[in-house]
Amino acid sequence: MAGCIITIDAMGTQTAIASQILNAKADYVLALKANHPTLYGQVKNWFEQQLSQGFKGIIHSYDKRLEKGHHRTEKRQIWCVPISQQQTLHNQDNWVGLKWVVMVVRVPHLCNQTTREVQFYLTSLNCDARNLGQVIRLHWGVENGLHWTLDVTFYEDACGVRTGHAPQNLALLRRIALNALNLEQSLKGSNRQKSNGWDSFSKTGSGT
Fold first, then answer.
1. Pair 27, 66 in one domain
2. Is residue 155 part of a domain?
3. pLDDT at 196 exceeding the cut of 80
4. Is position 80 within any domain?
5. How much of the chain exceeds pLDDT 90, in percent?
6. Is residue 60 part of a domain?
7. Whole domain around residue 22: which residue ranges?
8. How far is CA 168 from CA 65, 88, 163, 204, in A?
9. Confidence class of residue 140 from pLDDT cuts 50, 70 and 90?
């Protein structure tokens, strides 16, 4: 793990996890979303203000990309700002190794429809917007593929559980189950077919 860059979606954006990564001599790129409402709101408002002012007088790294393919275009912009340029962040000292805060703006255009997505990240890396953009792009590819697999196999998007720690616990259990399905070789077919096979097996008993 030493020397690696660990990218984690919002569910894993926790101070304890950041500490574990740093203790293993690795670096982190953690997605920041509304499950940390105070910190998220603070970062979001700060970036919006600086964006309106063109980041005048602010030390930052910036990169812009345009990708085309399969009748789709996507414009991506990324801003990396050292925490020294911002006001003290909420519980900043609890985020071990935190050096930069990142904003990514994605504007995909497909079939005459244009959307705009804004995402924020916390990182222990010494930031270069171009390199960090590539790291985040790779994470999106893995995460999107995993999300699609979880939805097809376990109908994750249809799950109505929203209270307490239940969503996080179920998400973790789904990933454990998905890993088990990937390791299962005695049943042939897709993971969805394998899970149906396990379900039928559990209903009929172990055969003993």
1. yes
2. no
3. no
4. yes
5. 41
6. yes
7. 5-139
8. 33, 29, 10, 31
9. low
